[in-house]
Amino acid sequence: MALVAGAQVTSTQVASAWSGAPAPRPGPVAVAGYDLGDTAFTDPGTGTVSELRAVVHHPRHLTGRVPLVVMAHGSWWGCDSRDAVGWPCPAGTRPYPSHRGYDYLGAALAARGFVVVSIGANGINQTSFDYGDRARLVNEHLRLWQLLVDSGTGPLAGRIFDAGDGRAVASRFTGRVDMTRVGTLGHSRGGKGVMWQASDKHRGDWPPGVRVRAVLGLAPVKFDVPEGDHSDTLITTVPFAVVTSGCDGAVREGGQEYLDDLRGRNTVTDYSVSLRDGNHNSYNTAWTPPFLFGEDDSTCPGRQLAPGRQREALTAYAIAFYRHQLHGDPSGLPVLTGRRPLPGAVAAVRVAPPGR
Fold this sequence. Notes:
It comes from Saccharothrix xinjiangensis. This is Chlorophyllase-like protein. InterPro entries: AB_hydrolase_fold. By secondary structure, the protein is α/β, with parallel strands linked by helices. It has a single domain, classed as Alpha/Beta hydrolase fold, catalytic domain (Rossmann fold, 3-Layer(aba) Sandwich). It has helices spanning 11-15, 103-110, 122-127, 131-151, 189-198, 257-260, 307-327, 333-336, and strands at 29-35, 41-42, 49-50, 53-59, 66-72, 115-119, 161-162, 177-187, 212-218, 240-245, 270-275, 347-352.
């Protein structure tokens, strides 16, 4: 099975993503993927039709039961033509590889003990702006993984293929992933999607046997409908982090408001970091020049972070956050609390303890 590459990641780049990475030392990473088709999922709430497609980064040698991290991209070109309308993509065009834009992060996390699944959401981008759609798409992937991990059954059985030699590798995950230690990451509109998925209001929609324990909103959009009602995204029982950028020309730093919603009512610790000179798109290599349709949205021309530096900072923070929350590793706390600087970035960091 051929995977469209949105980013090329080498073992050297993985190992050097952050020189102060938490234990354990980075290990070898394998890449796989699955594609159940452009119309494999119909949203039970809205009827939106979308793909079930993902790239999977995982430790080459899986031992014990390791946590799962699911990553969801935001709204971008759904097809590789600016003129494409509807879904699936019309003849002569292909789905845009936004889900491959986080390969660098997936590889870095996999090197440190996670199975990382970056999912496609182009069907939603082409036809819907409903954030429940994005949350339920995440839940559907989690449901399929729970079936595979628990019993080796379901649509993913025999349908995950190694990116190198094309061998079916789904069976290697059965009994090797801990679905009670799940993390999520959402970028832009995907950020609101994962906040929705993990919220107090919607956690009853999680598939049986799945427990989400860590949520990272990456430059997430933040607006409530109706205005002032944040119940769809309010999280008081799951630790979460928000990463924003001071030169973000798409959503500014509105995502920090997710933490403001919790004042006086949270029961868990939440974290936030703002990269002073970062932009919105450089977190995703497929949205970054010179990639097709890539754009530099920075509002600070002349002083914005280089894309590679911005990704290094995110990688450092994400490793620390997920290692702490899903592996119980305290060595990342200096990064989460701002006592160790992020590489290549000037950042403002805050941590809010439970019961603030």
